[in-house]
Design brief:
single chain; Neuraminidase; 2 domains; 4-stranded antiparallel β-sheet; Kelch_1
Amino acid sequence: MLTANKKKKKKKKKKREKMVSIELSPELIPGLPEEIGLDCLIRFHYSTYRVAARVCRRWQQLLQSRELHYLRKQAGYTRKAACLVQLLNNTTDSAGFDPVSGIWDRIDPVPKYPYGLPLFCQIASSEGKLVVMGGWDPSSYDPVRDVFIYDFTTQRWGQGKQMPETRSFFAPGGFEGRIIVAGGHDENKNALSTAWEYDVDRDEWTELARMSQERDECQGMVIGSEFWVVSGYRTDNQGGFEGSAELMDLRTGEWRRSEEAWKASQCPRSCVGVGKEKKLFYWGDCDSAIRVGACAVPLGEGTLVSGSAYQGGPQGFFLVEGHGERFKRIDVPPQFSGFVQSGCSLDI
């Protein structure tokens, strides 16, 4: 018995020594050059990160870093996925869709709101992370300023610094680690012209220059290095959607107006498409199957589009090539067939 116990202790000691040597090793993968070890890590599928991060502290730090995301993207190992905010059975939930595998998945609930996301919350992506902002408390219907970040590498939610102002139905957009928000309305239904920038890594908000006018229920999108705020309406003209848009140069922070960029009187929420020469179009005009409640999420060479043929009708989901030329209907599990309130794409 004593001999057996000694052998067990000796094995445990060797195991601990091996773990310590890996932990302290300057090499990503012992015995391999640094560049080859790094090339191995950037090939990992994001779904393996949570387990891989347990190998050693260095792997954990690297897998959760901005640098690895940039290297993966540069080498072509990231893939675009769609994140959606859906309404199903009177509950607002988030879902993910991988167009390569065709797999749908439910994202874990936010701990603060275990029974559904805030109503009408807005989402944007930043370097492989999903950022959820604002909305209305699902119990009290009061507007909230909460910010939540879902990290796909750890598969966990974190809570960010609250938005500086209460705003609903605003325009969000993500660019190089920053989330831009503009427009919407305050708790008294006054339309806003203000804009703010959120640095996801630093967890800091910075006020930006105002737009030239108030824009409630506008649509935000990033085209190249410009943040577009499309349409919207003023406080004294409720529901009177305008045809103009405002564009911020994300390098300089300066705004400029674009007249007749959108169809006046048409709500732009989640349904703006970008055609040739940056011409905007309404996705609902592209096919009768999505005439009502169209929502579009760009996915690189294609777009995930959903909508109904008539008011109250079932949702149809399509992968569309180009600028709406060819619609391909996709099958969606019943638990992901709800009305799509908003969506965004992200590289993971």
